[in-house]
Amino acid sequence: MDNIRNFCIIAHIDHGKSTLADRLLETTKTISERDFQAQILDDMDLERERGITIKSHAIQMEHTAGGKKYILNLIDTPGHVDFSYEVSRSIAACEGALLVIDATQGIQAQTISNLYMAIDHDLEIIPVLNKMDSPAAMPEEVKDQIVDLVGCKREEIIEASARTGLGVDEILSAIVSRIPAPKGDPAAPLQALVFDSIFNSFRGIIAYFKIVNGTLRTGERVKFFSTGHEYDADEIGVLKLKQSPRNILMAGDVGYIISGIKDSSEVKVGDTITQVSNPCDTAISGFAEVKPMVFAGIYPVDADDYEDLRSSIERLQLNDASLSFIPESSAALGFGFRCGFLGLLHMEIIQERLDREFDMDVITTVPNVSYKVFTSKGEEIDVHNPSGLPPVNHIDRIEEPYINAQVITKSDYTGSIMGLCIDKRGVLKNQIYLTRDRVELTFEMPLAEIVFDFYDKLKSISKGYASFDYYYTGYQKADLVRLDILLNGEMVDALSTLIHREHAYDFGRRMCVKLKELIPRQQFEIAIQAAIGAKIIARETVKAVRKDVTAKCYGGDITRKRKLLEKQKKGKKRMRQVGNVEVPQQAFLAVLKLD
After folding, report:
1. What pLDDT sits at residue 144?
2. Cβ(588)–Cβ(495) under 8 Å?
3. Phi/psi of residue 43, each to 5°?
């Protein structure tokens, strides 16, 4: 155990975590040159296409220092705020962290929030100043920021370049000398923390774990603490680039277990594995429960695919524990699921993965957040969906979730960023100058306001320099109304939104204009209306496609033409009564891109 080091790499998005992981794997010769490719740990097509890490990836390396052989378990983590739950799980399985900071950009919002998460878990922090080979690097300035933030000595900061390999040997020796070995007793009853799992269609569910106490051997009978189910450990092993079987794993080891589990509800991230013959008394604590921030309905395009969609989402949840879902139904879309996501990017990725990995055709409704509604009878109801709102005369008050948002930006953009946040009902709480030209702004604002387009606008206002991070603070009273969209007097429940009263008219009008562009013309007129309760606040009309019924009249009396037009008029009236208006999938997505 003295020769094991478990560590993760944490940083803001695009600061070079995955490239640094490549260099570490190359230097320790974990990967042969033939197998090597850039961002080797990002094994999902989506990760490669977008150039971001979505999943944490664990891999074992071997390194010799001072004549001793060390086993290094590395976990590469995502940097985007929507995947911060992945980071918290990786941190729970480690004793140390490499804090990577871009020498050209300095400390950014996600750097700070990941660092605080690591400090809460008492991890040993090794600051690494990356991209030192860049002509735009500002090493002295960024080192001052790091010393202020981490409280370390200047000489403890390692200068590196993940692209060229500068400083990688120094990082390896710092990992060996500064990160403590895992604490644990190999002779105690088995306690292993499950931090991830994947589904394999041949072998069932494969759980990844870190052994905190005890020893695990192949073929032993084990049980999962929270469900109480028992299994045989058919195969255990460590995570190299591919799974590498072992006969025995001891305290401090990170590995995987295959035990033929077929039902995804039986494996939960954060659960504890123990032996049946000599069980531990308590489960391992300290695993954060995930708090979904954004809710949206996911429905199959074909109603017969409902059960397939359920099993696809369950399998996806194995690999992404921050996804939560419950069944729901909609008058317009049939049966589906109300899913909880950590943000809009997370929602987009889940949609893409359902399409690519499970070949599911789905419709996603307008995302929203969850509200607390207090009725006049004194009841409290959690409302995830505007259609679940009680009648207006029964509502006493509605409360919505608020967040503390931290924006770190160059001081040139302070005014325009303040303007954006105040437009989004934000209140400026604090303003700190980190350096001459870098400022940290703290706002209190409603979560619903950042769901749609806040991040995109922030990036364009600040020319990509501003970084953004937020954490949830609680609920506050809000003046909200339900905005309904009616097509020919029929409400489309999937397009209903809960919105602040001040913004309702403007939003309703823009919705109607957008839907007018997207809904195909029929042979009858379609009225698109936005309504609050019984009051119509905006209307657009999709004109009917006119069929020329008088074309066959070449002459004669005008009454002949009039007779045909009257007949057509009656037909259109009847058609409007029985006609059905299909809302295309783009209409649901267009609501997000109204600006």
Report:
1. 86
2. yes
3. -95, 0
Buried b or exposed e, range 199-232, using 16+ CB within 10 angstroms: beeebbbbbbbbbbbbbbebebebbbbeeeeebe
The contacts found for 385-391 with CB under 8 angstroms, 24 or more apart, are: 385/295, 385/297, 385/328, 385/338, 386/482, 386/493, 386/496, 386/497, 386/498, 387/330, 387/493, 387/496, 389/482, 389/498
**How many CB atoms neighbour CB 190 within 10 A?**
27
Q: State how far the Cα of 558 lies from the Cα of 560, in Å rounded to an integer.
A: 5
CATH annotation of 191-275: 2.40.30.10
Domain 372-478 falls in which CATH fold? Answer: Alpha-Beta Plaits (3.30.70)
Distant-in-sequence, close-in-space partners of 235: CB < 8 Å, separation ≥ 6: 218, 245, 257, 258
How far CA 185 is from CA of 429, 448, 482, 569, in Å, comes to 47, 47, 57, 86
Specify the DSSP class assigned to residue 336: E
Mean pLDDT, range 483-512, rounded to an integer: 84
d(C-alpha 234, C-alpha 240), whole Å: 19
482-593 folds as: Alpha-Beta Plaits (3.30.70)
The mean pLDDT of the chain is: 83
CA–CA separation, 328 and 298 (whole Å): 9
- Rounded Cα distance between 466 and 463, Å, is 8
Half-sphere exposure for 56 (CA within 13 Å, toward CB): 31
* Interatomic CA distance for residues 383 and 391, integer angstroms: 13
Between CA 422 and CA 420 the distance in angstroms is 6
C-alpha 282: how far from its chain's center?
A: 31
Phi and psi torsions of 540, nearest 5°: -135, 155
Helix (H) or strand (E) holding 430: strand 427-433
The CATH code of the domain at 4-178 is 3.40.50.300
Structure confidence by residue, pLDDT tens digits, 200-240: 888 888 888 888 888 888 988 888 887 788 888 889 988 88
CA distance 188 to 359: 46
Q: What are phi and psi of 223, to 5 degrees?
A: -140, 150
